[in-house]
Amino acid sequence: MSCPPRANPFLHRLFAVLAAVLVAFSGNARAARRWVTVTVATANLSDSTTQAYRDSGIRHLQALDPDILAIQEFNYQGGTTADLVHRIFPANDRDFCRERGGARLPNGVVSRHPIVAWGQWEDPYVKNRQLFWATVRLPGGAKLHVVSVHLVQNRANRRIPEADYLVQCIREKFPRNDYIVLCGDLNTSSRETGVMAVLGRVFDLARVPADQKGDPNTNTPRTHPYDVVLPNRVLAPCEVGTIVGGLSFPDGIVFDTRLWGRPPFPARRTDSGDNLQHLPVMKTFRIPIEDD
């Protein structure tokens, strides 16, 4: 009986490496199909004189190009709300919704993905805006509830009960295992306030966005962390680093154009100092796609 021909060790190793590469590529391709990456930004970038959006605020948002934008003081003197959305995102059709009722400083949401429901809760602590929410359907069927708020400014004693009321509304409206993100201008002087403790009952406060110098403050003088993007505890494990202009921001970005030699197009270096009170904040989430 003759023995089988001896295997070539080099070819054996080569085939083994090729097989491993094919398996890894196939596995990565399957994994890639099971996730969707979503950037979520909040912006109160209206002009501090008119409380309406104009070119410098619009350029911030064009440069960031978020998938989902929670917007405050959703006003535009150059046309309709639809005109403003098209100015911010000229290359894409975006779904958007804006609170009803004639509020002077309305909240809203703009999304690359379909908005399938939206509504508002009457805010008993401030009279010129409401607490707003929208549900976005992500690729694969997962839903993300986006809450856009602008808490009371001048009467700090109202802010904690306002936050408590907001948490109550969120708990009553959305299932506890759903993805929820709270965005907006909290008008808080620090992240150690009672407001943050109340919001921490539902939302994860651990990862704090910052600029490239590590500064987390979001008003233009860079003295207070007014603006937040806060995931609930279901969404928080999905957070990943945010990439803007080739730079990595591990906990999300506070976007101050004055810190860039050349900000991402079309933002200009002077935009953040052009009569704005706030800076935009953006985070990134890698959310599992639901199985078919």
Shape, principal axes of CA atoms: globular
The CATH class is identified as: Alpha Beta
**Which structural class matches the secondary elements?**
alpha+beta
Question: How would you sum up the major sheet?
Answer: 7 strands, mixed
Count of DSSP-assigned helices: 5
Taking pLDDT < 50 over at least 5 consecutive residues as the criterion, the unreliable ranges are: 1-32
Distance between the termini: 55 Å
Domain count: 1
CATH topology: Deoxyribonuclease I, Chain A
User: Which architecture would the CATH scheme give at its second level?
Assistant: 4-Layer Sandwich
Classified in CATH, the superfamily is Endonuclease/exonuclease/phosphatase
How large is the radius of gyration? 23 Å
- Average the pLDDT over all residues and give the rounded result: 90
- Beta percentage is 25-35%
Question: Quick one: how many beta strands?
Answer: 14
Helix content: 10-25%
Taken in chain order, the helices and strands follow as HEHEHEEEEEHEHEEEEEE
